Every structure is written in C-alpha cells, then in structure tokens.
Amino acid sequence: MSSTGQTDEQLVAAAQGGDRAAMDQLLRRHYDRVHAVCRRIAGGTRDADDAAQEAMIRVVRNLDRFDGRSAFGTWVYRIATNTALDELRKRQRRPHLQVVSGTDSHDDRDDGHEPSDELAHLRIESVADRLAIDRALADLPEDFKLPVVMRDVGDLDYAEIANALGIPIGTVKSRIARGRRILLEQLGNHERHSQRQTEGPPNT
Amino acid sequence: MNDDQFFLANAYLDGELTDEERATAETDPVVLAAVEELRGLQAGLRDVEPPSELSRQRAVTAALDLFRVTASPPAHAFAGRSNNNQSYSRYLGIAAAVLAIGVLGVFLANATVNMGGDDEDAAEAEATNEVVADEALESASRLVEDVDAEAQAESASASATAEAADSVAGATQLEAAPAASIFAEEAAEDSAAPLSDSAGFDPNGPLTDPTQLARYARFVQDQNALGVGDITPETSCVFPDADNPDGIIDSIGYVLDGIEREVLVAVDPDTGQAFALDPGSCQILVEAPLP
C-alpha cells in the first residue's frame, strides 16, 4: 500500500495493523522535528541523535497505546521531550571532559580571518546565532526551558504542554512568557556584546 | 513595556487569545513590537542544524527493527523467526518420533517377557500394552499437532519424519528392545518438561541472556550439522570473515535493555564464541562462550 499523501491518522491506523511502510512513513515524517526538540533540550548534536533514535524506538514500542485523543505529532513530540530529558539527565551523570584546545571550541571563535564573501559572513552569523541560542537555552532553568521548547519547537499548545508536564495551564502560560523573556534578555546581551566586538574598543 | 503587555504578546503569538483580546493587542504598538521580537526568538529556536541523513536512517532502521518484532502480525514475522518455527516443528517432530520409538520398545520388551507366562496372562498383558502403545502414539501425534498453525506445512513434514522413524523402529524393535527402552526413558524425560525449558531457551525467541544466546547458537549449529537447520538470513554483515561459512547462522529476537529487537546470531569457531549482532550496524551487542 502506498503511504504517500496519507494523513497521520490513516498512517497510524495502518501501522497499528502491522503495515511497516506506514510506520516507516510516520517515523520519517516526524523525525526532523523530533530531532530538533531533542537538540534544543539535550543541547548537543550527538546527544540529540541518540535521544531522537530512542524517541523513535519509544514511539514504535508504545504505538499500540496511542489512542488518537491527541494529534499523533503532539504525542510524538511529548515522547521526544521526555526522551531528551532522560538523555540530558544521563549526560549530567557522566563525568565532564574539558576541551583544552582544538577545533571544537567554537564559542569564542576569533581566528582573525575576514569573511571572504557576504555569504560566508552570513553563515558565520548564523552559526554564532545558533551558538548564542544554545548557550542561552543551556542556562535557562529546566522549568522554563521545557515549556518554551515544547511550544516553540514542538508546536504543542498550552493544554498539551500542561498535560505533558502535569502542571496547570496558567503555570504553562507564565513559564513560557518568563522563559522567553529570560532568553531575550540573554540574547540581547549577546547582541550588545557582538556589537561591541565589531565596533572595537572605544577610543580613549 | 509592562508585564501585562508582554504576557499579551506571548499569548498573541501562541494563538491563545480570544477575539476581543486579539483586537486589543493589535491596537497596541508596544505589544505588536514585542510579538515581532518573540517571533524572531521562535524562529531562532526552530533554526536547528538539520540531522544528518545517517542519523535519520539509523534511527528509523532501529525503530523499524523493533516494529517488525512487536507490531507485525504472524504472517509478517521476520524471516529468522519463521525459520525458527520451522526448527521448532522439526524439533517437536523428532521428539515425537523418539517418543513413539520408545513406547514401541517398551511394548516389545513387555511382550517378550510375557512370552514365558501362560496364555491368559500373555493375552491380558498384550491388550494392556496395545492400549499403552496406542495412547503413547496418540500423545506423540498430539505433540506434533501442537506446532503453531503457521508452521503446519513444516509439521506435516515433521509428522512424516515421525512416521519414517516409526517404520525404522518397527524394523528394528525385534532386535533392539533394550535400546528402545533407553529411548523410552529419554522420551519420558523429554515429555515431562517443556522443550524450551529442557533446551534452556525458547526456539521461537526472544532470547533474554548471553547463556541462552550461546545455547541457541549451539542448537542452530547442531541442526545445521544434521542438515535440518535454518536458512541463513540474508544480511550485509560479514562475520567473522567472508570465508567463514559458520559466521552468521540465524536471526532471532533478543531482549536487550528491556526492548525486544531482532539480532543476527553468529559464531566464531576459532574462539568458540557466540555473538548477537545488530542487523543494521553489524555491531556486536552480546557475546558468550558456546556451551
């Protein structure tokens, strides 16, 4: 059976009946978003890879329990969130290795090279922005980070987030707002810091 | 911007406002400016480096491997499992044949002993023996019938094997009564405990620990040696080297970290180790010395 163009609901029904092609289609359809959620919660690409794979496995393992009361995507992103959290906690239990030197330390990249063209400059800006967001998210307390990521990356609504996290909708609403405000403030600091670096030291 | 305006901007962005609240928000330039700022943040949060094709493929493959084990109806069961059912039916068929041979041996031995008694006792003993033999043959037959419906064709083959063994027993019982008695004891032992328990694993899987893996690998090796083994699963994994005919010998379910997944079973005859390999990455997941 061709599964192209079918809705999630149709694919879920087929997959629950044992249709492997339908399951394949569902997993591929949602993988990128699952990975993005995991990336934003777990923090690193490798951890996100691991978490996203584990999330896919959990989706399959629990497919029989999915009853269609929420959208399939919502259910999947909730699984992704929980899996990424598990990954994050697992990582926090691991001993940290300090990078003494080398190419992995992008954070304070200043190699003295001028970007050779405008596109390269934009690419570096994009990387810098991503790193700034990574850093800001990493500093954001979990209570704020989860609702913000579930809302802005996972696209879950307030009620779904409240249900997933077991907190009242009002709390979700305020945590999202406060979390975003903290992020904006931190990114604003980053923006000002970048601007100062571009302008150079003030003349004395 | 005060807190109310910021909260309004958040709710506006998230589509969580009533029509009236939305109208209020849209007339306030401070709120609209905050909405734009929040949109920028949201876009930044969504701007994640896309996953590599390799990680996508690996994740989907791992999940689908599990799907094959957990969600497929019997007709879609993976090849290794289907083959294992065939092995199981053969195993049962052979056990049935052994049981039949043993019982016939007992029957013959009793008949021989009774030849020395009077005619009435001999007739009674013969009648009893016939009943016992009939019951035993019936249980042997039931044993074969217990095979899963999906392995019926193979069961028929196993029954044929049992019948063939029966004929052999018929031909040899006159001269091999003591041996038949030994068979009977073995058959009694076999029928007393489930086959899976006596073998230390369930041939239908899943395996649950390295000891079971090693025993199962030995079982498949023995079957292959007898020419009744499974068809080696098709795989791109080469183990331990391309020239080794004993490398990958089967596939079966294995419970690892609480999750049942399909693994390839391999044996390295040089080291005497049995291995469970990941069918996607060919990595060794479990290993154990062969019994």
SSE arrangement of chain A, N to C:
HHHHHHHH
Order of helices and strands of chain B: HHHHHHHHHHEEEE
Radius of gyration of chain B: 33 Å
Query: What is the global morphology of chain B?
Result: elongated
What is the number of helices of chain A?
8
The chain pair with the largest interface is: A-B, 48 and 37 residues
Structure commentary:
The complex is a heterodimer of chains A (204) and B (291). Helix content of chain A is 70%, strand content 0%. With 204 residues, chain A is mainly α. In chain A, helix 2 (20-42) runs antiparallel to helix 3 (45-61). In chain B, strands 1-2-3-4 form a 4-stranded antiparallel β-sheet. By secondary structure, chain B is α+β, with helices and mostly antiparallel strands. The radius of gyration of chain B is 33 Å and the shape is elongated. In chain B, a hairpin with a 6-residue loop joins strand 3 (273-277) and strand 4. Chain A binds chain B through residues 15-18, 20, 23-24, 27-28, 31-32, 35-36, 39-40, 45, 48-49, 52-53, 56-57, 59-61, 63-64, 126, 129-130, 133, 137, 148-149, 151-153, 157-158, 173-174, 176-177, 180-181, 183-184, 187, and chain B through 6-7, 10-11, 14-16, 37-38, 41-42, 44-52, 55-56, 58-60, 62-64, 66-68, 70-73, 76, 259.
Short description:
Chain A is an all-alpha fold and 204 residues long. Chain A has 8 helices and no strands.
List keywords for this structure.
heterodimer; A: 204 residues; 8 helices; 0% strand; globular; B: 291 residues; alpha+beta; 4 strands; 10% strand
Topology (elements, then pairings):
The complex is a heterodimer of chains A (204) and B (291).
Chain A: H1 8-16, H2 20-42, H3 45-61, H4 72-93, H5 118-139, H6 142-152, H7 158-165, H8 169-199
Chain B: H1 3-13, H2 19-26, H3 29-46, H4 53-70, H5 79-114, H6 119-145, H7 152-172, H8 177-192, H9 195-199, H10 210-226, E1 248-256, E2 259-268, E3 273-277, E4 284-289
Antiparallel strand pairs in B: 1-2, 2-3, 3-4
